[in-house]
Design brief:
The strands form 4 sheets. A 7-stranded mixed sheet has the order 1-9-8-5-4-2-3, with helices on both faces. A 3-stranded antiparallel sheet has the order 7-6-12, with no helix packed on it. A two-stranded antiparallel ribbon has the order 10-11. About 40% of the residues lie in helices and about 15% in strands. Helix 3 runs parallel beside helix 9. The protein is an alpha/beta fold and about 375 residues long. The two termini are about 25 Å apart. Bound molecules: pyridoxal-5'-phosphate.
């Protein structure tokens, strides 16, 4: 047992204090400014974030989950509709589809990149064409790929299939601020895209916050109405919700956005050091698809003895999390409820038993990373497996 400080899986406190002066000034601005909801900070952040991303419009929301729900609702997707997504994701992805009133339909992930497998999507659509029974009379309207861990899904292949079948595309970018594929940013491929600014995300607030991004001015205008009771000039034109980005979180995001590229660079440098240090270890390392820029929201390794590996690291004072210990369809709230026609969820179910996220955040001290590498070098899997 080591006497050293614990190595944390993430440290939003240190990441925020690294920009502490700007964050304190932002909080002071709101305190003395007198606008707390829908004011200049929110407007400035929407413009700055859209500009940083290279998208036409960003609409601030109270969370990433709300942004997904609003993305579905602006596309008129709701009761009577079904939406394809993955089960290997944060439960929020699936929860947002149900909150919009639609049925989530689950498809497997690619075993290398861990994101929605276009071949499985094609097989699922073929299956449903032969037997639409699993949809229970609902109409399949959209596909919701998740750019998990910071790596974009195979968007060209997914978009091609969606175009052929007349399906809308909503991207879940909650873990992919700054990721790109073939030079094109995650969040600019689909009809719209949802971002989360939960404190541990690549861009994090000091509370809940999110944004819906789109290239379509009408979708953006509708999202602005729906996030505030369906209001236009304070009269409800359609039933909406309350999901506004508050001024305090927007101000903090304005203070942190200018550092996002440097923070992402630091995440990539840490990932490369893991890769170099783990080359001879019997662990599965994350694969980066050709043309992909991975922003390492997580650095996820694989071992058939994951639980023993996690316990080994814990004995060295290293705290690792699993993202996520159960696929969505395995969790009590969803078990047996969500259709997964076609080839099923075999890769997802194998993955969730083997994955482990190594500590990675922009201010991770080098000494902590060295301790992780040393502990992994001392790891002896039983029976010599991985
Ligand atoms: C964090 C996350 C969300 C939800 O965002 P919140 O801001 O927590 O509501 C959705 N999808 C994925 C993949 C996430 O990681």
């Amino acid at each position: 047992m080591t006497e050293d400080a614990a190595v944390l899986p993430a440290d939003p406190r240190a990441d925020t204090l690294a920009h502490g002066d700007a964050v304190r000034a932002a909080i002071e601005r709101v305190l003395s400014g007198g606008h707390y909801i829908q004011g200049p900070e929110g407007e400035a952040f929407e413009e700055a974030f859209a500009g940083w991303l290279g998208a036409a419009h960003a609409v601030g929301t109270a969370s990433g989950t709300d942004a997904i729900e609003l993305g579905l609702r602006v596309l008129d997707i709701g009761p009577g509709d079904a939406v394809v997504t993955v089960s290997h994701t944060a439960v929020a992805t699936v929860a947002a589809i149900e909150r919009a009133g639609a049925l989530p339909v689950l498809v497997d992930v690619d075993p290398e990149r861990y994101t929605l497998d276009p071949d499985c999507l094609a097989a699922l659509l073929e299956d449903l064409a032969g037997d639409p029974g699993p949809l229970g009379g609902r109409r399949l309207r959209a596909v919701l790929p998740v750019h998990l861990y910071g790596q974009p899904a195979d968007m060209p292949a997914i978009l091609e299939i969606c175009r052929r079948h007349g399906l809308r595309v909503i991207e879940d970018c909650a873990q992919a601020h700054g990721a790109s594929l073939d030079g094109r940013r995650a969040g600019t491929w689909g009809d719209c895209a949802a971002f989360s600014f939960y404190p541990t995300k690549n861009l994090g607030a000091l509370g809940d916050a999110g944004a819906l991004v789109t290239g379509d001015a009408e979708l953006a205008a509708r999202a602005r109405r729906l996030r505030e009771y369906g209001w236009a000039s304070r009269v409800s034109q359609e039933p909406g919700i309350n999901s506004r980005l508050d001024e305090l979180q927007a101000a903090i995001l304005n203070a942190k956005l200018p550092h996002l590229d440097a923070d992402n660079d630091r995440r990539c440098a840490i990932a490369e050091a893991y890769r170099a240090g783990l080359g001879s270890c019997a662990l599965g390392l994350p694969a980066v698809a050709p043309g992909a820029h991975h922003v390492y929201h997580q650095f996820v390794v694989r071992s058939t003895q994951r639980d023993a590996l996690q316990a080994h690291l814990r004995r060295h004072g290293i705290h690792c999390l699993v993202h996520y210990p159960m696929a969505v369809h395995q969790q009590p709230a969803y078990r047996g409820r969500l259709p997964a026609p076609g080839p099923g969820l075999g890769h997802t179910e194998t993955l969730v038993r083997e994955i482990l996220s190594l500590p990675l955040y922009p201010t991770l001290p080098d000494t902590h990373q060295e301790r992780v590498l040393a502990a992994l070098a001392a790891w002896r899997p039983a029976g010599g497996g991985s």
